[in-house]
Write a structure and sequence with these properties.
With 334 residues, the protein is an alpha/beta fold. It has 15 helices and twelve strands.
């Protein structure tokens, strides 16, 4: 199977590197700075599977026909990536990997819906610099069709990708994608503070903000009539249990989970974008709670405030202190 990966960030590099190590015919597309470094020095992966340097065929545009194109950009970059590479995308199976729920709709404007497979990445990686990523923790790779029923094509693709990460085929990928938003919803905290998740969530007061994010988001999603479905690595019961127990108790449990998530510092996708001088995906994560609230005559004041704070960091380059964040969210956290 000829596979092309568009996006040389944390997830794109990790997927491409591991596929190459398994002997797959893989091709990487990314921005000039990353591609030139990878061509010169190879792709360096460290983390839970030790250290590897992998030689990858890499270019700034897709220039070959592929059986499978894995789209590993952020949601805000999906449309540009598809349009730039459309000549070699429109006849291929395309696998989206983005957080949030909008990537598949964006892609469907340009290629046939029956060629689109949606996926959810449950493993974690951090982009260090061009050509260098850390694989922080293992996890499943969930996939399924949004616009059609799963078929033998997705089974074949799943079997190939299972060589690098355990794959799961879902018949309700949309319900899982909404639950995945909760997994990512607390990435806004280290992005606002400019520190790792472990450092941010070691503070119980900061972890209480995270529980409040989940509570508000759960009320909005439920009030919008959306039925979420458990993920292999994140059961729905974990969310409902933590959001229903006393806030301080829930915050202590959440803090313990996050502090021990990885030996290496984890910064989250939103802060990684900010550090690279690019816009983040905040509007597709916490911003989705805000959008749903507006569309369904509900309210999401905490998530609305946090989206605004992330955009302020993006604009000014100045991170907030923990004390400032607590002050900015005062009265919005139970």
């Amino acid at each position: 199977m000829k596979i092309s990966v568009i996006g040389a960030g944390a997830i794109g590099n990790l997927i491409c590197g591991y596929l190459k190590l398994k002997g797959q015919d893989v091709f990487l597309v990314g921005r000039d700075d990353s591609i030139s470094t990878i061509k010169e020095k190879g792709l360096q992966i460290t983390g839970v599977r030790n250290h590897f340097t992998v030689n990858i065929e890499a270019h700034d545009r897709l220039n070959r026909v592929s059986d499978l194109v894995i789209l590993a950009t952020k949601t805000q970059d999906v449309e540009e990536a598809v349009k730039e590479n459309l000549k070699f995308i429109e006849g291929a199976n395309l696998l989206t990997t983005q957080n949030g729920v909008f990537a598949d709709d964006i892609v469907s404007r340009y290629i046939p819906k029956e060629n689109i497979i949606s996926s959810i990445v449950m493993f974690g990686a951090t982009y260090l610099e061009p050509g260098k990523v850390v694989h922080n923790f293992e996890g499943n790779w969930v996939m399924g069709r949004i616009f059609a029923k799963n078929d033998e094509r997705i089974t074949r693709i799943s079997e190939v990708l299972n060589k690098v990460f355990p794959t799961v085929i879902s018949d309700n990928i949309q319900g899982m994608k909404y639950l995945k938003i909760f997994v990512n919803a607390n990435n806004c905290i280290p992005a606002i503070l400019g520190i790792s998740m472990q450092e941010a969530f070691a503070d119980i007061d900061i972890s209480r903000i995270s529980i409040a994010i989940w509570r508000e988001g759960f009320d909005v999603v439920s009030g919008s009539g959306i039925n979420m479905v458990s993920l292999p690595d994140f059961p729905l019961e974990r969310l409902t249990k933590l959001t229903s127990m006393p806030a301080l108790e829930a915050a202590r449990i959440f803090s313990g989970i996050m502090v021990n998530l990885s030996k290496e510092p984890i910064y989250g996708s939103i802060l990684q974008s900010i550090k690279r001088g690019r816009s983040s995906e905040i509007d597709y994560i916490n911003g989705e709670f805000v959008r749903l609230a507006k569309d369904n005559n509900l309210t999401a004041p905490l998530n609305k405030r946090l989206v605004k704070l992330v955009h302020e960091v993006e604009k000014t380059g100045r991170f907030f202190t923990k004390e400032e964040l607590l002050h900015k969210t005062k009265g919005l956290v139970g």
